[in-house]
Amino acid sequence: MSTEIENLKTYDPFAEADEDSGKTTKQTQEYIHIRIQQRNGRKTLTTVQGIPSKFDHKKILKVVKKDFACNGTIISDSEMGEVIQLQGDQRSKIREFLTDKDGGLGLDDKTIKVCCHNLLGTCLLRSQLILS
């Protein structure tokens, strides 16, 4: 008779499962999320999350602050890692900087998700905005 109790193991029903082994798999492609948040009145914040750790976030912030003529900071979060926060609506400029091979980071455009919040607070991707 086995002394192990099988139903005390933790199981996440929402995790992706590999069909062959039953073990959970992690997505290999990580996205860079660019979001905008309304502060007060017409003031907005642009947040950039998911920049790979091989890049120095402090140097990126220094270059971006000078090129975009805005202020910014790096916020450390336990779930999201290091998040770059910029003043103003800098979505298009930061996307160009991330994908530019000459003066920017040269990242793939498919790994960048630009999120636009409408008045209801729901997130719309830029591709959804172009279609409508």
From TrEMBL:
UniProt keywords, alphabetically: Initiation factor, Protein biosynthesis, Translation regulation
Q: Which GO molecular function entries does the Swiss-Prot or TrEMBL record give?
A: translation initiation factor activity
SUPFAM superfamilies, alphabetized: eIF1-like (SSF55159)
Record-linked CDD domains: eIF1_SUI1
PROSITE patterns from the UniProt entry = SUI1
- Span of the signal peptide: none
Q: Which residues cross the membrane?
A: none
Q: Where is the SUI1 domain?
A: 32-102
Entries under Pfam families matching the protein: SUI1
GO biological process: any one?
regulation of translation
What the record says about family reads: Belongs to the SUI1 family.
Q: PANTHER family of this UniProt entry?
A: EUKARYOTIC TRANSLATION INITIATION FACTOR SUI1
According to its UniProt entry, what is the function of this protein?
A: Additional factor that functions in concert with eIF-2 and the initiator tRNA in directing the ribosome to the proper start site of translation.
Q: Which named protein is this?
A: Translation initiation factor SUI1
Which organism does this sequence originate in? Podospora australis
